[in-house]
UniProtKB/TrEMBL annotation, chains A, B, C, D:
Residues 22-92 form the GapR-like DNA-binding domain. InterPro entries: GapR-like_DNA-bd (IPR046367). GO terms for molecular function: DNA binding. The keyword Coiled coil applies. Residues 25-52 form a coiled coil. Keywords: Coiled coil. It comes from Candidatus Phycosocius bacilliformis. This is GapR-like DNA-binding domain-containing protein.
Length: 94, 94, 94, 94
DNA sequence: CCGAAACGGTCATAAC
DNA sequence: GTTATGACCGTTTCGG
């Protein structure tokens, strides 16, 4: 079902990559790993903030609910915007 | 944005929150939302990088596999390092 | 790291299952597959309904938007309920 | 793509929707929501079955693997069947 | 066909 | 520790 060049096996047939391609690939890997590292750090900082709030006596469950509610409000507004666009498009305004 | 009687404020017994507490709470919400915004932006940048790689003809599935394997290798190496430290400590080398 | 009984290898060591366990397992598999079959059938029926609407000249994009909006409204109401419960609990009403 | 005056497009320009179209639209929404409700219920029942299996000591990860493998086998058999039919037809046996 | 968006599954984390 | 909740990833599907 799979042959040697199967994309799920990135090790296969490395000779098919030119030097330039290999260099480009290395750069992509580096960029991705940098971004992922930063994302992981942000996740850790978020945990710290919640921990700090908890240590000061705030109810993290309620705090998370506030964050969730505000995010959902933003989503609702975006959804309303989409519906408006859809409607305008339907009546030929776009 | 929220006052003490605001029913949308789920934090316990609003009247029990001092002005200082309310201000602190607002700061926590702001910090959390800032961090989450940055995290979302990083996620979008990651999508863009993968998109750029794809547009240059790279197989993103393979690329993701590479990233995954390298992360796992890093974990494995960290784990091996921990085991080594543990053993060294056990034999009094640390 | 993995031994023969490792849970990630469900084929390993079948002799570890008693007859009763094996029978119970077969029943679970049967129940799950029945439910998944029904779920797949519902998905197909949904596709048919959208197709029928489209064939009658309805804009499926708008139709999907309506469905999504109504679902989100329901979610919003559920979320508001949760916030109310959280608030009531906070002020000691529960 | 859509002409605002196109009477055959029930979505465009809501005022252009006849009573019959509106009623039809309501029926589509109702049918879709019913099907989605049933689909959600099946998903919940599946969760319950896995939970019950887990409570009886079965490894749900292994159980899921069994389900996945059996589904794949079914797909493979169906595919083989299709190939066989194709070949039989090609040699005039059907 | 491609790109985007919905879906389901899996995993990590948090509440109980 | 166990269930419940949410994030993430991969897959599929739909519209262009």
């Amino acid at each position: 079902m799979y042959d040697a060049d199967d994309a799920t096996n990135p090790v296969a047939a490395p000779q098919a990559l030119t030097s330039a391609s290999k260099e480009k690939l290395r750069q992509f890997v580096a960029r991705i790993e940098t971004l992922e590292t930063e994302k992981t750090e942000l996740a850790e900082q978020l945990k710290e903030v919640y921990g700090e709030a908890k240590s000061l006596g705030f109810d993290t469950k309620a705090l998370r609910a506030v964050i969730r509610l505000r995010k959902q409000d933003a989503n609702d507004r975006a959804e309303a915007e989409m519906m408006l666009d859809l409607y305008l498009e339907a009546v030929g305004e776009i």
